[in-house]
Write a structure and sequence with these properties.
The structure holds three protein chains of three kinds. By secondary structure, chain A is mostly helical. Chain A has one domain: ABC transporter involved in vitamin B12 uptake, BtuC, CATH 1.10.3470. Chain A contains 14 helices and three strands. In chain A, strands 2-1-3 form a three-stranded antiparallel beta sheet, covered by helices on one side. The longest helix of chain A is centred in the first third of the chain and has 29 residues. In chain B, strands 1-4 form a two-stranded antiparallel ribbon. A two-stranded antiparallel ribbon of chain B has the order 2-3. In chain B, strand 2 and strand 3 form a beta hairpin. The longest helix of chain B has 30 residues. Classes of the chains: A mainly alpha, B mainly alpha, C alpha/beta.
Chain lengths: 353, 293, 253
C-alpha cells in the first residue's frame, strides 16, 4: 500500500496524480455546491461546455505541444464528432431508450468517425511541415464546416434520406437530423456534467498512457529533432499520424458531448474562431503542460462569461488579456525574476557530471 | 461570353486577394510571422474611407489617402507595441498576440462604429464598359481593381529590387543577423515592411468595399483568411507568388460559384489549396528550404 | 574477419558541385576506423550518405553485403547503422534517460493498444528498456543526470549522451562525427577509453570523424584521409603520419 502511494507521488508520476486529483476534487466540489446551494442557471449551463473544451484543449495539446505541429482546424474534428453524435443519437433514439447508453454509443461514434478523418488529414500532415501544415489544417477546418453546411439528412417511414447542397427531402412523418446551415435541430439533450468529467478522466488516462510509453517518447523526439529521430530509427510518418488520430478521436468525443448538450446546433459554431480559441487555451496553459491546459481552459472559457455584465467590453478585455499575457511571459525581465524566485524557493540539487 | 464575364470578375476578386496577400507575404518573409490581424487592418481601412467620404464629405482621392495613412500608422503602431517585444519569442506566442490584436481591432470597431452593417458609398465609379454590342459588360471598378493590382505589383517589385530599403528588406528576409552586421537597421526595416503591407491593405479595403459595399467589424476576417491562403498557395514569402496565388484563388472561387455551387465554393477553394500543397509542398513559387545536417 | 561496411565508387553532386567522388572504403567487424581530412573535405557528407540523409549520386553502399540504396534514414538505422552529429542533435526537451530510451523502440515491440491498456507486455518491455537505458547511462557517466532535460546538460555530456543514444539502437556500425569536439584533454582521454570499451562490450565497428589527431592516432586501427571529396590516403596510423600527401594537404604547400 505504501509502495503504491510513493509510486503515485514520485517525481515522475506527480503531475499525473495531481491531474486526476484536480478533476475529481473539482467534480466533488461542484456537485456539493449544486446540491446544497442555489447556483445560478448560468453556472450550471457552463459545466458541460467547459468539460468539452478541456477535452478539446487536451487533445489539441497532444498535436501542438507534444507533437509540435501547429493545427488551426481543430474545430473541424469537434464538428465531425458533434454532428455524427447528433445523427447517431437521433437514429437510435427509438431503439435505445436509456439516455446513458445512447450517450455512450453516440460519443463512441463521434470519436471513431473523427478519428477516421484524423487519419485522412494526416496524409498531408506527413508531407508538409511548419506553416504549410498549419494552413492545411486551417483549410481542413473550413472544408468540414462548409460540407456540413450543405448536408441534409433525415429519416422517415421509407428509411434514411440524404441530400447534398439543395434540400430536396420531403419527409413523410419523419425527422430531420441535419438541415444544412441550420444544423441540428430538436436534439435530445442527453449530455450531463458527470459524463463530461468521465470524458476528461478518460482523456487524461489516454494522453498520460501514451506519452509515458515508447510512442510518447517518439512523438516528442520527432518534435525536438526530426533528423536525429530518423537517425535512430523513428518512423516520423507513423509517429505523427498516431498523434493526429488520437487527438482527432478525442476532439470528436468532445464534440459529441458538446452537441448532445444543446437542442439546436449550427455548423457555423465550429469555425476558424473556435479553432483559434482552443489554441489560445493550449498556449496559455503551456505546450505539453496538461494541468496548465485544464486550468487555462477553465479560466479562459469562464472569464468572458463572467465578464458578461461588462457587455460590449468583454471581448475587448479578453483581447487585451491575450496581448498582455504574451508580452509579460515573454519578457526577459519577468523571466529573470521568476527564475530568481524559483531558485530561492526550490533550492536545486546540483548535478555533477 | 458569360464565362468571360465570370473570369474577369474572378480576376478582379483575385486582384484584391493578391494585394492583401502581399501584406501577409512580405511580413512573413521578413518577420517570419503570420500576422493574423492583417485582415482587420482592411476593416479599419474600410471604415476610415467610409467616414472620410460620408461623414466629412471629402473628395474620393483624399479619402483614399486618409485610409492609407491611417492604416499605415496603425500597422506600424501594432508592430512596435505588440510584435516587436516578441522578436525572440516562440512563433506561437506571436501568433496568439496577433490573434489578440485581431480581436482587439474587431471589438474596438464594434464599440466605436456599432455592429450593424453600413452601406459603403460609391466612391470610385459605378459605370461600366460595354463590349460586343452589350454582350460583355465590364464595370470600370473591375478594370480599376485589376489595373491597381498590376500597378502595385510592378511598383513593389521595382521597389524591392532597385531601392536601398528594398535591398535591406531582402537582406533581412535572408538572414537577419548578417543583415544587422552589414549595418542594416532591422527595426526600421521591419517597420517599413508593416507600413507598406498596411498601406496596401487600405487600398485593398477600398476596392473590396466598393465591390461588395457592406461594412461591418468582421469584414476583414474572411478576405484575410482567403488572402493568407493565396499567399501560401503561391509560396509564402514570394511576391510574384502572392500575385499568382491571389489571382488563381479569385478565379477559382468565382468560377466555382458560377458553375458548381455557391455554397460549396469555400470547400472547393480550400480543397484545391490542399491538393496544390500536396504536389508542391512549398506553394507554386515557393523556395524549397534545405536543412543542413 | 568479415566486412561490415563496403563502399564502392561513392559520389554525390550538389547542383554542379561534386562534393564527394569515387570513394572506396571498407570497414571490418570490430574495427575502429578514422575518417580525417581538412575542413570541407566532405567527411560529414560521407556520413550523411551512409545514413541516407543525402542520396548518393553514384556508387553503392553495402551493409553486411546488403545494398542500402532503397532505404530511408530510418531503415538504415534498423539495418544497423547509428550515428552522432557534428552539431549536436539531442531531443532537447526530453530527459537524459528518455533520449536513450527513444533509441530502443525498434527492439521492443508493443502495440498502441498495449500502451493505452497498460498490459503486461508493456510493463515487461518498459522494464527492460529502463534497465538497458540505465546501464548505458552508467557507461557514459550520465546516470546522475538521468532525469534532467537534455538541453541543460553541459556540452561534453551532450556529446556523450548522443553516443549513448546511438548505441541504444544496437547498431553494427557506429558513426561518430567529431565526438571530442569542444572537450578538454581530460574529457577526451576519458572518451577514448569509453569508445574502446563500447567497441569491446557491444562488439561493434566504429567509424569516426575527428580533428583531434592524438585521439585519432591513438584509437583508430585504420585511417582514411579525404581531401576535396576524394580519397587521399588510407592505412594504419603510422603510415598516415608519414604519408607526404597527407602532410601536404594539412599543412599546405
Amino acid at each position: 500500500m505504501k509502495n503504491i502511494l510513493t509510486n503515485l507521488f514520485n517525481k515522475k508520476n506527480r503531475g499525473r496524480t495531481l491531474s486526476f486529483i484536480i478533476v475529481i476534487l473539482a467534480y466533488a466540489g461542484i456537485e456539493i455546491l449544486t446540491h446544497s446551494v442555489r447556483v445560478s442557471r448560468l453556472f450550471t449551463s457552463l459545466l458541460v461546455p467547459t468539460c468539452c473544451y478541456i477535452v478539446l484543449a487536451l487533445s489539441l495539446n497532444l498535436v501542438v505541444g507534444f507533437s509540435g505541429e501547429l493545427s488551426l482546424g481543430h474545430a473541424g474534428f469537434m464538428a465531425i464528432g458533434a454532428f455524427t453524435a447528433v445523427c447517431v443519437s437521433g437514429l437510435i433514439g427509438s431503439v435505445i431508450v436509456n439516455d446513458i447508453l445512447r450517450l455512450i454509443i453516440s460519443i463512441i461514434a463521434g470519436c471513431v468517425v473523427s478519428g477516421i478523418f484524423g487519419l485522412i488529414i494526416s496524409v498531408p500532415v506527413l508531407k508538409l511541415s511548419g506553416d504549410y501544415l498549419a494552413i492545411v489544417t486551417l483549410a481542413f477546418g473550413q472544408i468540414i464546416k462548409s460540407l456540413i453546411n450543405n448536408i441534409f439528412f433525415g429519416y422517415d417511414a421509407n428509411g434514411l434520406q440524404f441530400s447534398f447542397v439543395n434540400n430536396s427531402l420531403e419527409l413523410q412523418n419523419g425527422k430531420m437530423l441535419l438541415s444544412g446551415p441550420m444544423g441540428a435541430t430538436d436534439t435530445a439533450k442527453i449530455s450531463n456534467f458527470t459524463a463530461g468529467i468521465i470524458l476528461i478522466l478518460i482523456t487524461l488516462y489516454v494522453i498520460y498512457s501514451l506519452i509515458d510509453s515508447k510512442y510518447g517518447r517518439t512523438i516528442m523526439a520527432a518534435r525536438d529533432n526530426r533528423i536525429a529521430a530518423e537517425s535512430i530509427g523513428v518512423n516520423i510518418s507513423k509517429t505523427k499520424t498516431l498523434a493526429f488520430v488520437i487527438s482527432a478521436s478525442l476532439a470528436g468525443a468532445a464534440g459529441a458531448l458538446y452537441a448532445l448538450n444543446y437542442s439546436t446546433l449550427q455548423p457555423s459554431k465550429f469555425d476558424f474562431n473556435t479553432s483559434i480559441l482552443v489554441l489560445v487555451y493550449v498556449v496559455f496553459g503551456g505546450l505539453g503542460n496538461i494541468n496548465g491546459t485544464m486550468i487555462s481552459t477553465t479560466v479562459l472559457y469562464i472569464l468572458p462569461e463572467l465578464l458578461r455584465s461588462l457587455r460590449d467590453y468583454r471581448m475587448l478585455i479578453y483581447a487585451v488579456v491575450l496581448i498582455v499575457v504574451m508580452q509579460v511571459t515573454n519578457s526577459a525581465r519577468v523571466r529573470e525574476l521568476v527564475n530568481r524566485i524559483s531558485s530561492k524557493v526550490f533550492k536545486k540539487r546540483e548535478v555533477r557530471l | 461570353m458569360t464565362f468571360l464575364t465570370y473570369l474577369i470578375s474572378g480576376l478582379a476578386l483575385g486582384s484584391v486577394y493578391a494585394i492583401i496577400a502581399l501584406g501577409y507575404t512580405m511580413v512573413y518573409g521578413i518577420a517570419k510571422m503570420l500576422n493574423f490581424a492583417h485582415g482587420d487592418i482592411i476593416m479599419v481601412g474600410g471604415y476610415a474611407a467610409f467616414f472620410a467620404f460620408s461623414k466629412f464629405g471629402m473628395p474620393a482621392p483624399v479619402c483614399i489617402l486618409a485610409a492609407i495613412i491611417i492604416c499605415t500608422i496603425l500597422g506600424v503602431i501594432i508592430e512596435r507595441l505588440a510584435y516587436k517585444p516578441l522578436r525572440q519569442a516562440s512563433s506561437l506566442s506571436v501568433l496568439i498576440t496577433a490573434i489578440g490584436v485581431s480581436y482587439f481591432l474587431q471589438n474596438g470597431a464594434q464599440l466605436l462604429f456599432g455592429s450593424d452593417t453600413k452601406i459603403f458609398p460609391v466612391m470610385l465609379t459605378d459605370g461600366s464598359l460595354k463590349l460586343f454590342g452589350g454582350q460583355l459588360v465590364i464595370s470600370y471598378l473591375t478594370l480599376i481593381t485589376i489595373a491597381t493590382c498590376l500597378l502595385i505589383m510592378v511598383g513593389l517589385t521595382l521597389f524591392i529590387n532597385k531601392t536601398k530599403i528594398g535591398k535591406a528588406m531582402r537582406a533581412c528576409a535572408e538572414d537577419k543577423g548578417a543583415a544587422q552586421l552589414m549595418g542594416i537597421n532591422i527595426d526600421t526595416t521591419i517597420s517599413i515592411t508593416f507600413a507598406i503591407g498596411s498601406g496596401l491593405a487600405a487600398i485593398a479595403a477600398i476596392l473590396l468595399c466598393s465591390t461588395y459595399p457592406s461594412l461591418s467589424p468582421t469584414l476583414g476576417s474572411m478576405p484575410g483568411i482567403k488572402a493568407f491562403t493565396a499567399a501560401v498557395f503561391g509560396g509564402i514569402g514570394s511576391i510574384p507568388g502572392a500575385l499568382l496565388g491571389g489571382l488563381l484563388l479569385g478565379v477559382i472561387e468565382n468560377l466555382t460559384k458560377a458553375y458548381i455551387s455557391t455554397q460549396l465554393s469555400d470547400a472547393i477553394v480550400f480543397t484545391v489549396l490542399i491538393v496544390v500543397l500536396l504536389i508542391k509542398p512549398t506553394g507554386l513559387l515557393g523556395k524549397k528550404e534545405n536543412v543542413k545536417v | 574477419m568479415s566486412i561490415v561496411l563496403q563502399v564502392k565508387n561513392l559520389g554525390i553532386d550538389f547542383g554542379g558541385l561534386t562534393a564527394v567522388n569515387n570513394l572506396n572504403m571498407e570497414i571490418e567487424e570490430n574495427e575502429i576506423v578514422g575518417l580525417i581530412g581538412p575542413n570541407g573535405a566532405g567527411k560529414t557528407t560521407v556520413f550523411n550518405m551512409l545514413t541516407k540523409v543525402y542520396d548518393p549520386s553514384r556508387g553503392t553502399i553495402l551493409l553486411d553485403g546488403k545494398d542500402i540504396a532503397k532505404m530511408t534514414t530510418e531503415e538504415v538505422n534498423k539495418a544497423g547503422i547509428a550515428r552522432t552529429f557534428q552539431n549536436i542533435r539531442l531531443f532537447g526537451k526530453l530527459s537524459v534517460i528518455d533520449n536513450v530510451k527513444t533509441g530502443m523502440n525498434n527492439h521492443h515491440a508493443y502495440s498502441v493498444l498495449d500502451a493505452l491498456l497498460h498490459t503486461g507486455k508493456r510493463r515487461e518491455h518498459e522494464k527492460q528498456i529502463e534497465e538497458k537505458a540505465e546501464e548505458l547511462l552508467k557507461i557514459f557517466n550520465l546516470h546522475d543526470a538521468k532525469d534532467i532535460e537534455a538541453d541543460s546538460l553541459p556540452y561534453g555530456a551532450q556529446r556523450r549522451l548522443e553516443i549513448a543514444r546511438a548505441l541504444a539502437t544496437e547498431p553494427k556500425l557506429l558513426l561518430l562525427d567529431e565526438p571530442a569536439a569542444g572537450m578538454n584533454p581530460q574529457e577526451t582521454e576519458e572518451l577514448m577509453n569509453t569508445i574502446r570499451f563500447v567497441r569491446d562490450k557491444f562488439n561493434i565497428s566504429i567509424l569516426l570523424i575527428e580533428h583531434d589527431m592524438s585521439l585519432v592516432m591513438n584509437i583508430c586501427e585504420r585511417i582514411y584521409v579525404l581531401n576535396y571529396g576524394m580519397l587521399l590516403a588510407k592505412g594504419n596510423p603510422d603510415e598516415i603520419k608519414n604519408n607526404e600527401k597527407v602532410i601536404k594537404a594539412y599543412l599546405g604547400d
